[in-house]
Amino acid sequence: MTSILQALFDGLASGAIYGIIALGLSLQFGVMKIINFAHGSFLMVAMYLTFWATSLLGLHLLAAIPLVVAVLYLVGWGTQRWLIEPVYRKEATREPISVLIFTTGLWIFLDNLFLVLAGPDYRTPAGDWANGVFVLGDLIFTYPQVAGLVVSVLVTLLLVLFMRYTRLGRAIRATGQDREAASVLGIDSAAVYRTSFAIGLAILGVAGALLLAIFPVDPFIGDLFGVRAFIIVVLGGIGSIGGALAGGLMVGLIESLGAQFLPITYSEALIFAIFLAVLYFRPQGLFGVERA
Amino acid sequence: MAARALLLPLGAAGALLLPLAFGNPYALSVVILALLYAYLALSWNLIGGITGQLSLGHAAYFGIGAYTSTVLFADLGLTPWLGMLAGAVLAGIAAVVIGLPCFRLRGAYYALATLAAAVILKVVVENSNELLGGPRGLDVRLLHDAPLYFQHTSKLFYYYVVLLLVGGALAANRWCLRSRFGYYLTAIRNDQEAAAALGVDARRYKLLAAVLSAAMTAIGGTFYAQYALFISPEKVFGVHLSVQIAVICIIGGRGTLWGPLLGALLLLMVVMRFEPRGVIALLGRALSGSRRLSGKAAKVRREAA
Amino acid sequence: MSLLEFRDVTRQFGGLRAIDQVSFEVRENETVGLIGPNGAGKTTLFSMASGFLAPSAGEIWFSGARIDGRPAPEICRRGLVRTFQIVRPFGEMSVLDNVMIGSFLHHRDRAEARADALAVLRRFGMAERAGQPARTLTLAGRKRLEVAKVIATRPRLLMLDEVMAGLTRVEMDEIIALIRSLRDDGVTILLVEHNMHAVMALSDRVVVIHHGRKICDAEPEVAANDPAVVEAYLGGDEE
User: Fold this and answer.
1) Which of A43, B32, C92, C116 has the highest CB neighbour number within 10 Å of its CB?
2) Membrane spanning segments where (chain A) (predicted)?
């Protein structure tokens, strides 16, 4: 029983982080209808930035978050402005397949760039904080797990509020629903796209820092979590913020509870099998609403 | 015209004599790998390029090819030359199984679904310890100089085999582009519904293209197993392999005859110059290349719309 | 003899009845105009007859076989083809290659398909544009190509969906002449067209659809004076 409870908690804790990894992707997907295949690589970048902030600058892992977020926001803005925008603009009428191809290239490029910059070794954050635990009876909660859970839920909540109650958030939603109509209302869709992409990456900054506390980084870590983020986005329903968190929690739970009954890697196969089934039978996602 | 007619035999002769120009076996091994990538990109081109179905799961077929021939050789002593064909058949079947549900999906969904299918296969192999060696992989039993068993100590042997593969893949692509089959595939890429209105059974042709592409990719997998003499799930089923195959084809120009070869040649040049991680420089080109290409595609679509 | 027949065909979209128990037939060697105000459901009828949409109820028969719900390629092979209102050329391919996709239906061999396609292009006055990419054609050129593509499949019945919309008067007369010559060759034609002048000039008979229902099926002159038709076109109720 204890082990099931522990697995439940572990699953929720990592699932929450998966959820906010997927959040940025879902936002980009929902607003711009673009598929950013480099998402996992940007996560890897965020993790390395966190690692360097703790090891080179000596920052506490949590204190590194604002810094990483700021850098990723700028990286996101620049990537959209100077890399994706020129590709996107040419093909805005249909599904932008060239952006998909382009970001696939970016994916491989970033992975290899960081292989050169950081080497192939696994890295964990400096400092002892990540090793701290709360003990409650037989259950063990590590600091990073608790922080991950709390911060992830907080970030999701903030994003929901932002999208609902701020001018900018509403502009983003309007653009996502109908670009033409939004531009009639005087919304500059290019600016909205830059902001959306930047916000997507900024959230990844939070996720990267939290993830580094429970998972070591290497240049190809993005493959694992990036692909998983796509699965979560599809499971949760494209463009749905709450759906991303729910999808993340679901994947986290499948992973940790699955590991109780199945060989560890099979739970990964299970996730992908569920993903394929959802893609086939319910392409709008488990929590998404069917659109005409 | 005369010049063009000369180009092909000259190119072929050049390729046949190329190894003489290399003093060290290292250079030759880089060339062999580049040619293998060219072959894989040419195979991918049938479905990803000409038919426009962006598969990011071709490692599945590569892995099936590598494992089938290796297991048949290890357990039954079957020569990998025949195991290669068995792998191709199996991969073809896998392409049908993966393709039937996935072809309902368009664009990014198709890409994601194929990627997921490959990952599932990888996980299955990682978990089947007795037969397939699990996550650690399998060694191919060393026979040294046994060309009948697809093995040789000389790299030249592999060079000529892969050269033959590339030639075959080029011929397949050329035939495809110039036949009804290829015309139909191109039409499907442009507008599947419009093609259906002209009597083109899009699903059937997409499946045929996928099967052909998968079978060819599997043969590449067997070649790799015999060349490296070691395979593991990560190496032959990995996501990176799938993506690399697609990216090489796209850099060179997808849907064209010489594009995939060009993409692999670029890779070769970069690796030769910037060993060990020249891939970065290559992908610098990849980015500008895909922008150029996508620009073109966008123009086509805009004007078509 | 009836070549194409709609029998009580109904199509619902959600709660909306786009087509409501429509029945009519198109006889061999006949040219029938299918008209009606915007949103009447003409294109929906085409989509059902050509296999792109299954009827919610009712049957569609072509040349003695029931075809509703059959896949589009099969219906095309039976000799029933349609053009698209919003033209759909294969943009990256040349004009000739576009038409070859049609002519490949009867030729496996590339050279034969090519010769056939060239003959079609010559007839359509487009031979000199054969090598140019389809996306570079003018609208009139693309409309013409849309027809050329399906003619290359050698259809028995041709469903034309507004092939004259957006054309100038001269271009329109050219395409009317072309359709006449196709009819003289024995191709049966079902024509959706907004332009009344063209419909009256070409059709042996017109079928009028309004709000998804058939309200008239008669010779052009008769239909033009039918009170229900006049009512439908001149208003009375807004859409």
Assistant:
1) A43
2) 6-27, 34-51, 57-76, 97-120, 140-163, 197-217, 229-254, 261-281
